[in-house]
Amino acid sequence: MGGGLWRAGLARLLPCGCVLCGALGREPLCPACRAQFCGVGPCRCPVCAEPLADDATGLPCGRCVARRPAYDATVAAVSYQMPLDRLVLELKFGGRLAHARLFASLLAEASQATLLEERPALLCPVPLAPGRLAERGFNQALEIARPLGKLLGIAVAPRLAQRVQETSAQSRLRGAARRANMAHVFAVPDRAAVAGRHVGIVDDVMSSGQTLHELAAVLKRHGATRVTNLVFARTPPHR
Hints:
By secondary structure, the chain is α/β, with parallel strands linked by helices. The chain has helices at residues 3-13, 31-37, 62-66, 84-94, 98-114, 130-136, 140-152, 175-182, 210-221, and strands at 16-17, 24-25, 73-79, 122-125, 155-156, 162-163, 186-187, 198-206, 226-234. The chain has 9 helices and 9 strands. The N and C termini lie far apart (56 Å). The strands form 3 sheets. The protein has a 5-stranded parallel β-sheet. A two-stranded antiparallel sheet has the order 1-2. Strands 6-7 form a two-stranded antiparallel sheet. It is globular. It folds into 2 domains: 1-37, no CATH class; 42-234, Rossmann fold (3-Layer(aba) Sandwich), CATH 3.40.50. Helix 9 (210-221) links the parallel strand 8 and strand 9 (226-234). Belongs to the ComF/GntX family. Residues 162-233 form the Phosphoribosyltransferase domain.
């Protein structure tokens, strides 16, 4: 038996520890933690996924009504809060790539419930600039998109969009500075790959939504008919 098959078989036989509480089991997230932290979430705006009052089901939030973003919809698996925020940081800055498969699994479950009619034709991970990609060694959005594409049966297009400018980390900026930071950052090399298609943008975390807005705007300018964000975690928007 090959080394890869042997390790896969051994992994199925040996219990693993829950990534949140350490309880032994067959899955990376134990049933108790899944129910407590990844169960039914808040009612969300269908456009930007901002949490809403329970009686606002299916209605866009006031922000999206007043100023519609370039993207058409957002699916978020969980809220960006303790202890799930630790997993995001472990993936992005600690290289815990196994977390990406867990994120994809939870995001696929959330997507199945909301993409019954408007399924994307392809998935576009938010690209990293070459310098940051070389420094980190991987793109966390792509690491999530690959297993997510397999689970949803949707092709992943890693080079559909390119980041053509190095930028400051969005997490360090607020308001107008975030918008200015992301202006003219993305490019789409092949218009034919986008025109007339529904594109799903994949990322780990959505906060202000400015990165996703800018990428969606570029995709729309190149002919995309619809853009849906598929993000693992959603934070409250920065005012």
